Amino acid sequence: AEASGGGDGPGAGRTEGYWAPLLQTPDRLRASDLNELLLPDHLERLKFRNSPLMAYGALFKWEVLVQNVLQLYSKPWAMVAASHDLPVPDDDEITRAVGVRSERAIQQIFRWTDDWGFSRQLAYEHYEAQAAVFASFEFNPVDGAVEWLGLLNSYEVPCCLCSSQIDADKARLAMSQCGLDDLFDAFVTAEDGCETPQQSYLVSAIKVRRPPARCIVFEDDPLGVV
């Protein structure tokens, strides 16, 4: 996300040093810093007074919007496991690996290997397997998703899709097939470098320009919120 102190927009007249915390890598972002830096300025407060819901952001873990998403995650990992005669991860392990870097999942969740070079190789094979599965997967939204996002859009609540484990092309493909792509103001994808769901939500807050304390997270795992 860009952070500029010039012009007439939010933060006008503030120095580059003021915005420095916004330029940190995801693992160094702190919610307390963002809660201060992303507070609305005078003009925004006036706007929010007329439209109170605009003061909030809606952050969606992308898996909560798509049907049968566990199958989408389990099949690529099963393909990698089969090609190397490794234990196939169970559903619980697959769920815990969602939003985690592939190398980290391989070493810390599946416990396939401690060798970093082999982990990188397996991660690349997983990326290719995932691309193949994505290309043939039929994406459908969960019941009520289109209507709910449409309602948020009608109240001008900025919405961000958090899909840090897949790249931007795959995220947009999935949302396009679900009929949701035009309902998001921002995307957090693999290109943003987030290693955990928590990091992806902080990056999302920056992208929708709302303090984390004023962002609502739609998540299916308590760990992602805590």
UniProtKB/TrEMBL annotation:
Pfam families: HAD_2
Source organism, top-level taxon: Eukaryota
PANTHER family: HALOACID DEHALOGENASE-LIKE HYDROLASE (HAD) SUPERFAMILY PROTEIN
Name assigned to this protein: Uncharacterized protein
Organism: Prymnesium polylepis
